[in-house]
């Protein structure tokens, strides 16, 4: 099972991804968790100790140079377009129970994009993870699908877009659907988050009527308190845990 999770910043995308990862681990599934959002901290949300000390792969300059034969930060020039990456998930992952977690980090881009060693290494790694690994893979993406391409889109079992009741969240979901369609990723579902009642559910169903809904997670102070205390939301006393189990069944 290969799942990508996306959505507008602040909707609870990383919280949802962490709940999904922990629940699947508790079901004895081997999970490879990928933090592909430079602005998020999936390791902390999952509950991995000393999460802030995990070095993003894009910042491992020696590794980037070793695998691409080009200096990190350089643009243009010659470097390997198909670097060796198949050993990295086992060698560089932080671990918790049945979970292996990798933090990709971001690539600073200039102009219209980046053809650089760091970007090449990350894209090769994602391609290997989606096409070549046999664990359940959960990828916490940016507010888009930056790390995915045509080579990997067809192998992603589902793109889950997390939304909250609000027009900007809905607009982001529509934009993500457009981007996904451009690379042939059409298996898209919605999870509603921060739901206060039936009115919120109906609002999302009305404006996202073309999407499949996997389920809804409640607005819950227990999840907020867990985040403030630096604990995983999965450790909170919340109905969200049972909702996540239902979503996994729906997937």
- Main sheet attributes: strand count, strand direction, barrel closure: 8 strands, mixed
CATH 4th-level superfamily: P-loop containing nucleotide triphosphate hydrolases
Q: What form results from the Cα inertia axes?
A: globular
- How are strands sequenced across the largest beta sheet? 3-4-2-5-1-6-7-8
Overall average pLDDT: 90
Number of helices: 10
CATH names the topology as Rossmann fold
Rounded to an integer, what's the Rg over CA atoms?
18 Å
Helix percent band:
25-40%
The span between the termini is 9 Å
What ranges have pLDDT less than 50 throughout 5 or more consecutive residues? 109-113
- What is the tally of beta strands? 8
What is the CATH C level class, in words? Alpha Beta
Range of strand content: 15-25%
- CATH architecture classification name: 3-Layer(aba) Sandwich
State the domain count: 1
Structural class: alpha/beta
H and E order:
EHEHHHEEHEHEHEHEHH
Topology of this structure?
Blueprint: E1 2-6, H1 13-26, E2 31-35, H2 42-46, H3 61-68, H4 88-92, E3 94-96, E4 99-103, H5 117-132, E5 136-140, H6 150-153, E6 158-163, H7 167-182, E7 188-195, H8 198-207, E8 212-218, H9 221-228, H10 240-250
Parallel strand pairs: 1-5, 1-6, 2-4, 2-5, 6-7, 7-8
Antiparallel strand pairs: 3-4
Helix pairs in contact: 1-10, 3-5
């Amino acid at each position: 099972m290969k799942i990508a999770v996306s959505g507008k910043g602040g909707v609870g995308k990383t919280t949802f991804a962490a709940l999904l990862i922990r629940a699947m681990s508790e079901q004895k599934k081997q999970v490879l968790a990928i933090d592909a959002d430079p602005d998020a901290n999936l390791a902390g949300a999952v509950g991995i100790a000393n999460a802030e000390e995990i070095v993003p792969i894009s910042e491992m300059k020696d590794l980037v140079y070793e695998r691409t034969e080009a200096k990190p930060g350089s643009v243009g020039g010659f470097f390997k377009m198909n670097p060796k990456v198949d050993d990295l998930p086992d060698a560089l992952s932080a671990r918790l129970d049945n979970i292996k977690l990798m933090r990709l980090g971001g690539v600073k881009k200039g102009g219209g994009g980046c053809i650089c060693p760091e970007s090449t290494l990350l894209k090769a790694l994602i391609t290997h993870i989606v096409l070549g690994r046999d664990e359940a893979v959960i990828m916490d993406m940016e507010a888009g699908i930056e790390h995915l391409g045509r080579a990997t889109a067809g192998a992603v079992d589902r793109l889950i877009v997390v939304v909250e009741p609000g027009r900007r969240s809905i607009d982001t979901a529509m934009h993500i659907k457009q981007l996904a369609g451009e690379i042939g990723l059409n298996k898209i579902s919605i999870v509603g988050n921060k739901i206060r009642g039936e009115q919120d559910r109906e609002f999302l169903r009305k404006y996202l009527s073309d999407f499949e809904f996997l389920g809804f997670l409640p607005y819950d102070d227990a999840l907020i308190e867990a985040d403030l205390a630096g604990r995983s939301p999965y450790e909170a006393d919340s109905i969200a845990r049972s909702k996540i189990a239902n979503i996994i069944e729906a997937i």
